[in-house]
Amino acid sequence: MADFTKRERQALRELAGEVCEAEAALLLEDLAASFEKWRAGKLLPSELLEAIHEFHQDQSRQLWSMYQGLRETDIVARGLARGLLASTKVPSPLREKLKPFIEVYRA
Hints:
Number of strands: 0
Shape: elongated
Order of helices and strands: HHHH
Structural class: mainly alpha
């Protein structure tokens, strides 16, 4: 396993936060679509409440649980592999150290 400098660990924390936010935003798009349907009169208020409840009970909890169980190296590597984080945001030396982690998430 690669050793990370203090500066790299700080970068990993910041980048991991960006990955979490990006994935949360993707999940919220479906919920936002439900709000749009409700505003357009195509969804009953009770149906919107059900969608909110389902989001909270399922997707939101899964996302939270997943990110609580991953290390920052894994979060950043997963974000890079899934396109949630642009590789240009990761300093080259750090990206090199993350290569083995990224390969795990590409497989």
